[in-house]
Specification:
The protein is an alpha+beta fold. The protein contains two helices and three strands; from the N terminus they run βααββ.
Length: about 70
C-alpha cells in the first residue's frame, strides 16, 4: 500500500464500489495503473488518475467507476 494515500471515489454513494476499492488499496497495490487494471476486472470503465501537484506530501488518486465524474446517485 502507498503511504499517505488519499482516495477520492466517484460515485461516493456506491458502497460496494467503496468496499472493492478499499480492499484493493489495502493489498500490495503501489501504482494507480495497477489499481485501475484490477478494478476493470469488475468495473470495465473504471479509471484511476493520480493528482500530480508539486510539493504535495500525500498521494491522491481519483477513482472513477464510470471513467469520469458522475453526479451523486
Amino acid at each position: 500500500m502507498v503511504a499517505n494515500l488519499t482516495i477520492v471515489r466517484n460515485p461516493a454513494s456506491d458502497r460496494e464500489f467503496e468496499r472493492v476499492v478499499a480492499e484493493l488499496v489495502q493489498g500490495a497495490l503501489q501504482d494507480p495503473r495497477e489499481l485501475e487494471a484490477r478494478l476493470r476486472e469488475r468495473y470495465p470503465r473504471a479509471v484511476v488518475r493520480p493528482r500530480l501537484l508539486a510539493g504535495e506530501t500525500t498521494a491522491t488518486w481519483y477513482v472513477y467507476r464510470e471513467g469520469h465524474w458522475v453526479a451523486g446517485e
